[in-house]
Amino acid sequence: MIGARIQALRQNKGLSLSELADKADVAKSYLSAIERGIQGNPSIQVIEKIASVLDVPVQQLVSGADASEELPLDREWMDLTREVAESGITKEQFREWLEFQRWRLQRDDKNDQGEQS
């Protein structure tokens, strides 16, 4: 699914496979494998690079959701985002923190499920 979305967006932008691979700094063979569904689980870093070049939100590549379907951010989220940006934390540092939190939550969920068995 993600491969088909990437391919369609790439073609809509008028980019060749080679052009997208070069601009996203991803191996052409790897990108081709993603588009053909051979590589069905690309890393979030690769997805972020591709989304950036295609100028679409990561969510659109992952789930197919259009940007217009995204939930609007309320004032508190906007303020929090601004605070993070002003604190000097880079986007990459924040992404790493989010990844860690997701991992921690998944680990905790698995531990909770193991205790319930």
Q: What secondary-structure arrangement, pairings included, does this model have?
A:
Blueprint: H1 2-12, H2 17-24, H3 28-35, H4 44-54, H5 58-63, H6 75-86, H7 91-116
Helix pairs in contact: 1-3, 2-4
Q: Averaging pLDDT over every residue, what do you get?
A: 85
The CATH homologous superfamily of the largest domain corresponds to: lambda repressor-like DNA-binding domains
- The CATH architecture category of the largest domain equals Orthogonal Bundle
DSSP strand (E) fraction?
under 5%
Query: Rg to the nearest angstrom?
Result: 17 Å
Structural class: mainly alpha
Total domains, how many? Answer: 2
Count of separate DSSP helical elements? 7
**Which segments are poorly predicted (pLDDT under 50) over 5 or more consecutive residues?**
none
Compute the number of strand runs.
0
CATH names the topology of the largest domain as 434 Repressor (Amino-terminal Domain)
Bulk shape: globular
Q: Specify the CATH class of the largest domain.
A: Mainly Alpha
Distance between the termini: 34 Å
State the helical fraction. Answer: over 70%
Q: Give the topology string: H per helix, E per strand.
A: HHHHHHH
Taking the sheet with the most strands, its summary is: none
